[in-house]
Every structure is written in C-alpha cells, then in structure tokens.
Design goal:
Elements lengths: L9 E6 L4 E7 L5 E6 L10 H5 L5 E6 L20 H14 L4 E7 H12 L4 E9 L30 H9 L10 H10 L8 H8 L4 E2 L3 E2 L2 E3 L6 E3 L4 H4 L8 H7 L5 E7 L13 H4 L19 H14 L3 E7 L6 H4 L1 H15 L1
Parallel strand pairs: 3-4, 3-5, 5-6, 6-11, 7-8, 11-12
Antiparallel strand pairs: 1-2, 2-4, 9-10
Length: about 350
Amino acid sequence: MTIPILEGITARTVTTRRLTTRVLFAGPDDGIPVLFIHGNFSNATWWEETMLQLPPQYRGIAADQRGYGGADPDVLIDATRGMSDFVDDSLALMDHLGHDRFHLVGNSLGGLVVWWMMADAPERLLSVTLAGPGSPYGFGGTKDASGTPTTPDYAGSGGGLINPDLIRSLLDGDRDSMGDFSPRGIMRRLVWSGGQIPEREDALIDAMFRVHIGDRKLPGDKATSPNWPYVRPGKWGATNAMSPMYVGNLVERVLAGEPKLHALWVYGAEDLAVSNSAGSDPGTWGPTGRLPGFPGPEAYPPQPMMDQIRKMLDDYGAAGGSYDEVPIEGSGHVPFITHSEEFNRVFHAHLERTS
C-alpha cells in the first residue's frame, strides 16, 4: 500500500546490502546530507515537515527503519545487538547514496540510534541532534543516573512492556477511539502533550498502523521473571532492542569515540514519554495499583531518563565533546512536529554551526 507524502518530498524504494525499504528525500541532490531517524510506532512520515523546512543547501533523508512502514517485513531486528541493526542499516544506506559524512537527527528510539552511532561511527558524523531522545541506557529497568539495573534480569523492560490492548487496537484498525491504549488516545496523552494536535495527525497515526507486528517483530517476544513486574526482555524486535539488557558498554564506547562532536539536545519541556517519570514506565505505573505486586518505590523507582541523558552529555563534554541543551516550553515528545518554529530555530543554527 502506498503511503501518502507531502508535496516537495520524493519517495523511493532503495535496496542496500542490508535492507530494502522506503526512503524519503527533500532538498537538492547535491545538498549537505541530513539523515533523520524515526522513533518507535512511527516511520519516516513523521519527519516530512522538518525535511521540507530545512535551509536550501541541505538534503533531507529519512528511511523507514526495519520493522516499520515500507521496510521489508521479512527482515527482523536482532534485539541482542541493541541498536546495531539500525546503525548498520543507516550506514549501509548512506554508503549506497554516496555520503561519507552527514548530519544525524533522531527522535525517541531514533535518539538511541544516535547514541549508538556516536559509539560506532563518529567519524561519519558532521553533527548530532537528539530530538526528544531515549536514554542511552534504553527504556525501563534502571534506577539511577548511572544506569544501575533495577533487577538483575532487567525485569519490566523489553517486549513485555507493550500493553497487549495497544497491539489489539492496531490489529483491529482502531483509528478513532480515545481509549487508554488506542493509538490516537496514546498519541494525544503521551506524545503530542500540552493539548497540541498536529495538523497531519491522521497521517502520523496511520504510520502507527504500518508497524510490523508479531512475536519476533512488535511487540516482540518476552520471558517470565521472578522479579516484579514478572516479565523480562526477549531477543527479537525493537522494543527488546531498547532494553538496557543489551546496552553493554555503550557509554564507555561513546566517551572513547573520536572525533568528538557538538551535540544538540532539544526536547519538549512537557514530554511525558521520556522523562524522570515516564508515562509507560513500570516504576510510574506501579504505585497506581494497575500492575499488581509493586515492591515499592525504593525497590523499583521510575527510570530517571532525563538525569541519564544529562549525565551522559556532561561526561561527553568532559571527554572533549560539547553540547547545547534546549527545552521547548509547552511541547511534548515531538517538538519538531508540534513546535516546529521553535525547534527549527535552534536546529538550523546547529546545522550551520557544524556544517
């Protein structure tokens, strides 16, 4: 099925050595490349306005990552590699397009890909923009700014974290209801935030229905745990790949990577999806009683995602890198969509500074 695009965006099916997928382009063919990486439950569609608003000397590029949108549905995500499948796919795409170096932008899950790219291929990057990124320690199962595990098996992270009612809503095609776990309801409560409803909300929500669903796709597999909330990560799919179980020594690798870059961390000040008390974190849900058996906030506090990001960037600065932190007031998880003017002001200045 064809995915509609805005005027000024070109969509192509591109086959690299790793993946066949839909790739969106904007700007001149010979422009300075800017690669945009989308988050979970979305696809490249979410970046279209941002690409169209780039200054004229830049070439915007956004691909549907494996597991999403127009990517080959038979190509799976090996969660035990963390974000490495996504990183390798992105590098293969830029190799195929002939771009040795490029600016990199990532939101949410895409922000995790940025962290991993900073570790694995910093020499390929002109700059990095972390636009409402996930924590470098992944999502769930850690309890302090240094990423200490909440339990030895990272219970509460991975595929078991996704509510089955959301998957059921996607399979049922529920595009309109405002239930707790309906696609539109989740977007309005956790992603747009602040009462902001994007003009293209229908297209953005439609992207949710193009995720690849299955036990080895989304939500992915899971395993039982003796530790609350009694599920731990499996080995397949993006949600498991986001688990801190598979982060390994990422932080050390980012800090050791050369050359060091200038990073822009820009986020919504009202973000409920990535925060120190994220809306879908078991540590946030536990005290409500909706997850039985909560062991208490000392044993399982909410993951301090913002503290983890800030510590990572402070340590990166101490190691020779640098960064700017820019909160956008009134914005939720996707300031590049809901507050594009404010976002683009700092984003474009960052590109100009580092091109």
